[in-house]
Amino acid sequence: MKINQYEAMTFAPLQTNFSFIYLAMKRSQLFAIFLLLCSAAFAQTAPPADLATIQQSFKKLNVLGSVLYMAAHPDDENTRLLAYLAQEKHYRTGYLALTRGDGGQNLIGTEQGELLGLVRTRELLAARRVDGAEQFFSRANDFGFSKGPEETLRIWDHEKVLGDAVWVIRKFRPDVIICRFPTTGEGGHGHHTSSAIIAEEAFKAAADPKRFPEQLRYVQTWQVKRLLWNTFNFGSTNTTAPNQFKIDVGVYNPILGKGYGEIAADSRSNHKTQGFGSAKQRGSSFEYFKTIPGDAPVNDLMDGVNTTGAG
Ligand SMILES: [Zn+2]
User: What average pLDDT does the chain have?
Assistant: First the structure.
């Protein structure tokens, strides 16, 4: 497939580095060519797989089902849940970070703005290599703190960012989308609230052939089964409730010899520009979910989705 505008800006495969395209949109073409040459010269090769990884891969072959996690920034993602979905449930799992975190602080170097976004892109890819999820982006710019979604969506170019999210959904074809934040503001930052607004709009638009029809040369429309909000208990804000659907993601994987709280910490510790060194945890840890559109799950996140390929 030829790389179109959506593909160039949203795709972040684990072994191939398309970050230079992102930078090329904003910096000089010469610099992009330099990065391209560097990228080719130092192309990553996958380390040899150990037996546990091979066994995990075989298990994954027998499972259908995919989940896309959506939020605004590098570090918003729930690495414990991503690791659990990818490595315990063997679902194809992705994280769509609408921004690359250009607006944050850099605790390990002097890069700021777009260059910091590039460093954080690499940090996210490193985190995904640990938790087993795939990484996607949109063209939304992290312009620093925003008080509300009106300001954020105006600066982001609402329609462009929505188009990118629709593209990722039509290409990745998730059965379930999970948002980190709600549309109602409890996530605080305007970027966070906007990521939920974009997710809800993209849920509908991805299935509508009248929305972003130019994409349909490359991908088909896609109906996501359900959109959930992964409610949270951060500081003084507790949005979880006993009647919400919940999953214990703190289980131990005997093949890997690790619990998902440990894998999550290893993944999250890659956010080095943000000074994250997460402590490893073992034992039960529940994640709670509130259904936004779609049928609420009763027994399983994938209720109503064929995850075995049978039938
Ligand atoms: Zn954030």
Answer: 89
